[in-house]
UniProtKB/TrEMBL annotation:
GO terms for molecular function: citrate synthase activity. NCBIfam families: PRK12349.1. Transmembrane segments: none annotated. This is Citrate synthase.
Length: 368
């Protein structure tokens, strides 16, 4: 067979890896994480449970869960040099680039960096999960010339993350919904960022490098950057009618509508989007303001009718984050912080069953 026949643009549908971590079963419309269904997990479990499932391959009992949460919270400290570095970044730096810089700089503090053992990689993953919320929030704050915030050890992991973002202790419902968003973002089989991280890890490179590449991948608006783009688009309109008009104009100009479509689900709703839509409704009911939900539903209807396209998770995560009072620039860094659990699991799996990624090309250059 010639290489030309094998070429699939964008590697659409190509199997890139064997994995025991997760699988999008499109026939049964299920997102499987280590044998469990993600949507069921989102109703019964929290983010810490999923971190345990991803890194320790099973859901935790109470003691294991408390132990894991302690491992993360005991890693909250960020070296002062890294905070100084973040404060030096120019003010137009995107928080994803601040996060990428801070994450990359952490590698120098790992004295055991050449150790690729399971134990060393897992303790690295716990350290990253502990530190990334503070790096995320503080890169945003320091770049803007604001004071750094310190984690609150008395709060649970996700509640502390939200507390550092908004500066106030979240209500239970807010903490629950934010935690649910982290859970839904935690792992999703082989998106571009996971592929990037695995490709980097396959050279025997370390977890910091693999995840730093993952941040760069996730920043793009065809991937994680879409959640921010959705919110900027929603904010362009002040009413349902204005939003409908905006979408129609964009469609006439053949613009892509952020938050719609998906390489794997393209003609079906991302099951995670449905859960986030329910959370948006819950928040709208709580706050007695249904405008964003009504706008999003109107957009969903137009995209289904005009393009046969359905929302992905980013479409409903954006208005949820807005209603939680989160600055737009933090939406994609939050997605990455949550995805750190999944990415770390993939780097560990790649290191354990490694073969270097090195594909070939179809040469279409000058004849020779
Ligand atoms: C959590 C996540 O990361 S989910 C993804 C978040 N990204 C987005 O929401 C960005 C908007 N969506 C998209 O750009 C795409 O749907 C992607 C990148 C997610 C998937 O893309 P691909 O599988 O490569 O499909 P591709 O971009 O080739 O689209 C196929 C067709 O559907 C159209 N299409 C796909 N998504 C959209 C969209 N959001 N708005 C309008 N048209 C779209 C394309 O224009 C194309 O039409 P054509 O065949 O007439 O040219
Ligand atoms: O699976 C993908 O390609 C993108 C996505 O939804 C995710 O990373 O959560």
């Amino acid at each position: 067979m010639s290489t030309k026949e094998q070429y699939v643009p964008g590697l659409d549908g190509v199997i890139a890896s064997e994995t025991a971590i997760s699988f999008l079963d499109t026939e049964q419309e299920k997102i499987i994480i280590r044998g469990h269904e993600l949507i069921d997990l989102s109703k019964q479990n929290d983010y810490i449970d999923i971190v345990h499932l991803l890194l320790d391959k099973k859901l935790p009992n109470q003691e294991e869960k408390a132990d894991l949460e302690k491992k993360l919270t005991s890693n909250y400290h960020i070296p002062s040099n890294i905070m100084d570095l973040l404060a030096l970044l120019p003010e137009h730096t995107h928080p994803m680039d601040g996060l990428r810089t801070g994450l990359s700089a952490l590698s120098g503090y790992d004295e055991d960096i050449d150790n690729r053992s399971l134990e060393a990689n897992k303790s690295r993953a716990y350290a990253l999960l502990g530190k990334l919320p503070a790096i995320t929030v503080n890169s945003y704050r320091l770049i803007q010339g604001q004071k750094a915030v310190q984690p609150n050890q008395d709060l649970a992991y996700s509640a502390n993350f939200l507390y550092m973002i908004t500066g106030k202790k979240p209500e239970n419902v807010e903490a629950e919904i934010f935690d649910r968003s982290l859970l839904l973002y935690s792992e999703h089989e082989m998106p571009n960022s996971t592929f990037t991280a695995r490709v980097i890890a396959s050279t025997n490179s370390d977890m910091y490098g693999a995840l730093t590449g993952g941040v760069a991948s996730l920043k793009g608006n065809l991937h994680g950057g879409a959640n921010e783009a959705v919110m900027y688009m929603l904010n362009e309109a002040k009413s349902e009618a204005e939003f409908e008009e905006l979408l129609h104009k964009k469609l006439v100009k053949k613009e892509k509508i952020m938050g719609f479509g998906h390489r794997v689900y393209m003609k079906k709703m991302d099951p995670r989007a449905l859960v986030m839509k329910e959370s948006l409704k819950q928040l709208c009911d709580e706050k007695g303001d249904h405008l964003l939900l009504e706008m999003c539903e109107a957009g969903e209807k137009i995209m289904k009718e005009e393009k046969g396209l359905y929302p992905n998770l980013d479409y409903y995560a954006a208005p949820v984050y807005w209603m939680l009072g989160i600055p737009i620039g933090l939406y994609t860094p939050i997605f990455f912080s949550a995805r750190t659990a999944g990415l770390a699991a993939h780097v560990i799996e790649q290191h354990e069953h490694n073969r270097l990624f090195r594909p070939r090309v179809n040469y279409v250059g000058k004849s020779y």
